[in-house]
Amino acid sequence: MRASLDGGMADRVSSAAVTAQCREIFRAWGMTTEHARVTAERLEYADLHGVDSHGIALLPLYARLRAENRINFRPEPRLLRDTPVIALIDADGGLGQIAGTRATLLAIEKARAVGLAAVAVRNSNHFGAAGAYAMLGAEAGLLGMAFSAAWDAAIVPTHGAEARFGTNPLAFAAPAGEEPPFCFDVATSTVAIGKLRLAELHGRPLESGWALDGSGAVTTDPKAALASRLLTPLGGTPQLSSHKGYGLAALVEILSTMLSGASYCVSRDREKPALDVGHFFMAIDPSAFRADGGFEADVAGMMGVLRETRPARAGQPVIAPGDPEARAFADRSVNGIPLPQTLVKQVREIAADCKAAWLL
User: Fold this and answer.
1) How far is residue 38's CA from residue 43's CA, in Å, rounded to a whole number?
2) H/E element holding 212?
3) Rg of the chain (C-alpha set)
4) In a domain, 223, yes or no
5) What does the pLDDT look like over 274-301, one tens digit per residue?
6) What pLDDT is attached to residue 6?
């Protein structure tokens, strides 16, 4: 056991058991066997790579959305447009992992044929960790990109006092030959809502620039920040270039929402149960540009140079994008996923409620 971030204790559970438990619950909720498998695998990616907020920990959120009739657990995604280079998918209100996986694999297939491809998705839902999709591309030897909008506004535009974007994540992954892939997976907010909750739980002030109070002023009080739910764009304050995160959030919104025809979060019809989230995926075949493997070698070389950078502080080496996820995978694939007791209790209650087998 080890202490967990929420102050409880965490047991290590094999990833196979965690993934099987997710599958069982998804099947009990009405998903087909294939959809349950795909969705559980995207959650497994997050748990194995240290993105704890986007693995099995999502089940309580999905249970709430299910209770609110916000998710179609028997979706029939369909192609609305399809050319050699692009496609548009209607997710039929299902969880984003279903259409997101299909879109990513379709982009990979098209990019292998023509060098580059993009697939947009509309009428979708929460899709988990963006890196799970970008890494599918890298594992296939391609550059993978994933973007997603959100249904709940949280990011405040620079100089604003109201939220206008969700946390709008983006991810980019590139193969590096025999080395672990380059992987950059971030939200476009300075921090996640979860960090505000942790600060409140431990009685700690927030870092200045993480969040705003109801008047739009920077606050270090986690209670005020949680009450307002106003996150700053990546960068924090105007003095620290929050306009860059603001612009990135807008870029993700345009690619995910306006291009696909999904609903922009602040203008979505709140009376309708469908969340109508939009995603955007892209794949590029590096061999279309360099057929000799030089791209992968150069990416690996760049990552090596980054790791060899002289550190500013002894004991805190420079890491390359993707290193934390690779280290977490190496540990957790052998030693299991750390699950806080509080989360296990929540998942047990969810399983009991839907009469799913208990496997943890």
Assistant:
1) 9
2) strand 211-212
3) 20
4) no
5) 899 999 999 999 999 998 899 999 999 9
6) 46
**Alpha helix (H) residue ranges in 203-340:** 222-228, 242-253, 294-307, 323-335
Cα of 216 vs its chain's centroid, Å: 27
Q: Which residue range forms the structural domain that includes residue 300?
A: 2-190+232-354
Please classify residue 271 by burial: count the beta carbons closer than 10 Å to its beta carbon, then call 0-12 exposed, 13-18 middle and 19+ buried: exposed
Give backbone dihedrals phi and psi of 207, rounded to 5 degrees, phi first: -70, 140
Q: How far is CA 248 from CA 48, 137, 223, 259, in A?
A: 27, 22, 27, 16
Amino acid at site 4: S
Tokens of 133: 């999709």
**C-alpha to C-alpha distance for 118 and 88, rounded to whole angstroms:** 9
Tally of structural domains, the chain:
1
In a domain, 28, yes or no: yes
Residue from 58, 62, 82, 78 nearest 70 by CA: 62
Contact 201, 325 (CB under 8 A): no
Average pLDDT over residues 122-129: 97
2 backbone dihedrals φ, ψ, rounded to 5°: -145, 160
Q: How far apart are the first and last CA of the chain?
A: 15
pTM given for the model: 0.94
> Could you give phi then psi for residue 169, rounded to 5 degrees?
-75, 155
Look up the CATH number of the domain holding residue 135: 3.30.1370.60
Distance CA 12, CA 336 (A): 5
C-alpha distances in Å from residue 49, one per residue of 8, 17, 181: 21, 16, 13
CA distance 89 to 288: 26
Residue 219 within any structural domain of the chain: no
Backbone angles phi, psi at 283, to 5 degrees: -135, 140
Residue 52 belongs to a domain: yes
Report the distance separating Cα 298 and Cα 300, nearest Å. 5
